[in-house]
From TrEMBL:
Pfam families: Aminotran_4 (PF01063). The keyword Amino-acid biosynthesis applies. This is Branched-chain-amino-acid aminotransferase. Its EC number is 2.6.1.42. The lineage of its organism: Bacteria, Pseudomonadati, Pseudomonadota, Alphaproteobacteria, Hyphomicrobiales. Its cofactor is pyridoxal 5'-phosphate. It comes from the Bacteria. NCBIfam families: ilvE_I (TIGR01122), PRK06606.1 (NF005146), PRK07544.1 (NF005726).
């Protein structure tokens, strides 16, 4: 049941250079982005009125578009400013921000060189992706049937809408089984990531995480690796086989939406949220606090 549908909310959405009332931010049904998935997006989060790592997100958005062979006709600075304005216009301090760019409806075929490029930015309040109580207790994850594809078959470094098709299928299958999310293997059968988050394991005081060679090297992933290194916790990026999971003691996932969230179970593998997970959850919460507030303190 949809309680608060996304096409009808109060406020405004930034669309192609200016604000329009939320309900008027529409696109034509013959948009290339809808038919052929020529669409890239970002998921950003604001804490205390400041968007965490905003420029990194905007740079990734621009790069995702380039990988899909189109150029977003606004600069990184202009997009950063539009994201800040969107947040301010909605009057939110703690919120999720969603920029999305897509090819329009000028050409309706696989080729779309003359299609106009659109950009929209929306912001909404979104306190926690997973149930806050579960985040500390640890999520139960399914093992997805779908695998992250060979990088020779998809533009795996783009945050592109088309790459989420198997994520939606995997997340639906997981939720049908009562799981919060699904861990996906890659095309080689190695551990990859979740449907919208990267994954980490802890064994004997060291962190192990898959090398991001066919999936998104998340901004949160890189932040958390930095936080672990600041605490002299060794971080080993390597190929991880599912058979190894029985020897892992802790598991957690990272993402802008997921933040740092403990995992208690994946299929038949069990983990106990422990000191390293708890430390990094707390360090991440500190790291995302608005810098202006720190400067003023
Ligand atoms: C498939 C996938 N992997 C990983 C991540 C984590 O990326 P980030 O930490 O940049 O949000 C996300 C979220 O954007 C994602 O959708």
């Amino acid at each position: 049941m949809l309680v608060n549908p996304f096409d009808n909310r109060p406020g405004h959405i930034w669309l192609d250079g200016g604000f329009v009332p939320w309900g008027d931010a529409r696109l034509h049904v013959l948009s290339h982005g809808l038919h052929y998935a020529s669409s890239v997006f970002e998921g950003e989060r604001a804490y205390g009125g400041e968007i965490f790592k905003l420029t990194e997100h905007t740079e990734r958005l621009k790069e995702s578009a380039r990988i899909l062979d189109f150029e977003i006709p606004w600069s990184v600075e202009e997009i950063d400013e539009a994201c800040r304005q969107t947040l301010a216009k909605q009057g939110f301090k703690d919120a999720y921000i969603r920029p999305v760019a897509w090819r329009g409806s000028e050409m309706m075929a696989v080729a779309a060189q003359s299609s106009k490029i659109h950009l929209a930015i929306a912001a909404w309040e979104w306190p926690s992706y997973f149930d806050p109580e579960l985040r500390m207790k640890g999520l139960t994850l399914d093992l997805a049937e779908w695998r992250r594809p060979d990088p020779r078959t998809i533009p795996c470094k783009a945050k592109a809408a088309g790459l989420y098709m198997i994520c939606t299928l995997s997340k639906h299958a997981a939720e049908r089984k009562g799981c919060a999310d699904a861990m996906m293997l890659d095309w080689r059968g190695q551990v990859a990531e979740c449907t919208g988050a990267n994954i980490f394991f802890v064994k004997d005081g060291a962190i192990h995480t898959p090398t991001p060679d066919c999936f998104l090297d998340g901004i949160t992933r890189r932040t958390v690796i930095g936080l672990a290194k600041d605490r002299q916790i060794p971080v080993i990026e390597r190929a991880i086989l599912p058979e190894e999971l029985s020897g892992m003691q802790e598991c957690f996932i990272t993402g802008t939406a997921a933040e740092v969230t403990a995992v208690a179970k994946i299929a038949d593998w069990n983990f106990t949220p422990g000191d390293i997970t708890k430390t990094l959850m707390a360090d991440y919460t500190t790291a995302v606090q608005p810098k202006k507030a720190f400067a003023a303190a």
